[in-house]
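Q: what sequence does this backbone want?
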């Protein structure tokens, strides 16, 4: 079967930055809906017309991947607003930020705690790969027709190219999970 809009592809890949540092390796195939929200448009475009077994090498500039780095999405917040157990690397949904946080911080994105100091913490709303050009080596492991459910959702259920919460901090009075 040839890859077209509205089919599901099973992919493996190696993701690197432009210096050749490996950022991610996917050895076991994962399914993505072509024509939905699972893949970046440049990846979908490159896959069109290929079949099982195809291998592609792509170069994605930040604007075609996770976007340019936006320093307006970095916020310093008082340490006392957050639980004592907060650590670097944790993610917080913008909607779950304490109400005393900077009101300019968008509520519809995820923030990564990038630094923890005695008096404040640094929250970064950029995707961890924002501002980075990427090299992606893809292998098409399988191609199949999409189900009605997948078409209705616009996804095969894979969220690699959409950052998802790893952990969400509860209100200050709560405990960390």
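A:
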């Amino acid at each position: 079967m040839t890859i077209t809009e509205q089919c599901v592809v099973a992919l493996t890949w190696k993701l690197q930055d432009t210096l050749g540092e490996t950022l991610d390796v996917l050895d076991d195939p994962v399914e993505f809906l072509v024509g939905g929200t699972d893949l970046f448009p440049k990846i979908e475009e490159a896959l069109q017309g290929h079949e099982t077994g195809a291998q592609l090498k792509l170069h994605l500039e930040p604007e075609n991947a996770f976007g340019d780095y936006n320093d307006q999405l970095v916020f310093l917040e008082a340490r006392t607003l957050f639980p004592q157990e907060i650590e670097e690397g944790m993610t917080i949904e913008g909607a779950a930020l304490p109400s005393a946080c900077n009101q300019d911080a968008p509520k519809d994105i995820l923030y990564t705690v990038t630094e923890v100091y005695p008096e404040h913490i640094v929250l970064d709303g950029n995707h961890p790969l924002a501002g980075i050009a990427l090299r992606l080596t893809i292998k098409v492991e399988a191609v199949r027709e999409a189900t009605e459910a997948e078409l209705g959702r616009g996804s095969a259920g894979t969220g690699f190219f959409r950052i998802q919460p790893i952990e969400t901090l509860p209100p200050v009075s709560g405990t960390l999970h």
